[in-house]
Amino acid sequence: MCYRFERLYLIYSGSIYRYSSKLINVICPVFILIPLPQDDHDRGGKNPFRLSIPKIRPVVDLAIEQVYRLDLVPANSLYVIYRDTKLSDAVGPNVAIEQYKKNQLDCIIGYAFVYALAPIARITRLWGNGVPIITPVGMTNNLDDKGEYRLMTRINTPYKLMCQAVLKVFDHFEWKKHTFVFHTIKDPGVPVSECFLLLSSVKQILKDLFPALHNFFPFDEHKLDREEFIEILKQSSFISNALHSKKSTFNLQPLEFNRFE
């Protein structure tokens, strides 16, 4: 027996997309692609949240059971396809393209590597009526353009909201001097870390408010030893510490490093 839905709505990013007269059942299912790596290795920052197909599959199974239990769609009408992206910015987009070529792609949930996500998130709006993407990555400001990434929904908080929070704190305490201390791997063959991407977004809003300073202290957490980190904290403290503002409820003082010896 076929179920006909005169109005089936998918809501993404505040927009409503209507699929009129779409048959949904076990013969005509909704194809959901989940593109993730087979293992949860970080691979030099490519998988910052350590996502993998074996980790995600039980969660998806429970979610689908709940959808059927609530009778939101007919039983067995959701067809989930897992594809190994190999944390590659070539293989990752290609698995989505292959599913679209087979006419078996209605929704994408996933991607662990932002460089694999970005090209697909730009073009899925051009595929038929559009293919929505739900992803845990891609929080940087350059993916905020809803004209460009119209069908992408990020389940994590975009970095622009973090930037707004930082501005509120700086404004409240009348702070001006600041430093950035963050982990990243200085290797052109390795993607920059999420720490770098987050603080780059914060830097963009602060640079217009305060004079440019040499206030960056990147480090590799896999190689840094105790003495090097203490030196970074010393330099950072000397640059960013100042007399407290009128609104501050505490004084910023140079760090007492002897307590760590």
Automatic annotation (TrEMBL):
Record-level GO BP terms: signal transduction
Main location, first listed in the record: membrane
Record-linked InterPro entries: ANF_lig-bd_rcpt, ANP_Clearance_Receptor, Peripla_BP_I
Tree of life domain: Eukaryota
GO MF assignments: peptide hormone binding; signaling receptor activity
Domain Receptor ligand binding region: 57-182
Record Pfam families: ANF_receptor
Record's subcellular location: Membrane
Gene Ontology cellular-component terms listed: membrane
Record keywords, A-Z: Membrane, Transmembrane, Transmembrane helix
Protein name (Swiss-Prot/TrEMBL): Receptor ligand binding region domain-containing protein
